[in-house]
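>> received
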Amino acid sequence: MTTGPISDRDAMVAHMAPILDDQSYCFLVITPDIAPTAIGAAIGTFREDEGVTAIVPEAVARELGDESAAFARITLTVHSSLTGFGLTAAVASALAEHGIACNVVAAYHHDHAFVPTERGDQALAILKDLQRSTAQG
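>> returned
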């Protein structure tokens, strides 16, 4: 049985079922010389006034000569509503309490939390604890 997106904050957190991706990613500013490779490998892009940012696998970023910070991606597998509120705040707050930076990207079906690669396992454990405690109410 398929259900629609969830918009209630507690229900989103209780059902977020976070999964840590095996790959690490980097956020790159796209320049004309790297555009074909970076855009082709990107799992997400965003256009800002200053330019286009692409989220690419770390290996691609390194091939392109980029040495920026790498991030682990934790996918919150709950189908969260785009009009729901509180999931990002709950996730970011839980991680912030442990000094973990978090960049959240929302897509149509799921939210994705990007945390420093070296803290990925710890962040996943924190989010699973948050899910459990919310589900138990």
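>> The beta strands are 19-29, 44-48, 51-57, 71-76, 103-106, 111-116.
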